[in-house]
Amino acid sequence: MDISPQNLIYHELIGLMVEVVGSTNQYLAGINGKVVDETRSMLVIEVEDMYEKQVPKKGSTFVFHLPVGSGCPPATSVEVGGTLLLSQPENRTKNIRKLRMR
C-alpha cells in the first residue's frame, strides 16, 4: 500500500522529510530535515550533514513532506500530532494490516 495522508501514521517514517512546527520546547520548533531513526518516544532528525537532533514525539507537532511518486500529488504535506505516533515503530506499522481488514 502506498503512503498517503490518510495512512501516514501506519507507515515507516525513516527517510521522510519532516519539519517540527510546534513543540513544548521552544528550541525544537523550526527544526527540519530527514528522519534517520525512530524510537517509541523520539524521532531522530538529520538537520545538516551528519548533525542529528532528537525530538520527543509527545508535545510536538510535525509536518511530513510525502515523496513524489507515492500515489499522492507532488508537494503533499501532512501535519501530525506527535501523540498519534507514540508507540514502537514496528507495532505501529503492523496496525496497517488491521486497517486493511476493515
UniProtKB/TrEMBL annotation:
InterPro entries: RNase_P/MRP_Rpp29_sf (IPR036980), RNP1 (IPR023538), Rof/RNase_P-like (IPR023534), Rpp29/RNP1 (IPR002730). Gene3D superfamilies: Ribonuclease P/MRP, subunit p29 (2.30.30.210). One of its GO terms (cellular component) is cytoplasm. Keywords: Cytoplasm, Endonuclease, Hydrolase, Nuclease, tRNA processing. One of its GO terms (molecular function) is RNA binding. Consists of a catalytic RNA component and at least 4-5 protein subunits. Belongs to the eukaryotic/archaeal RNase P protein component 1 family. This is Ribonuclease P protein component 1. It comes from Methanohalophilus euhalobius.
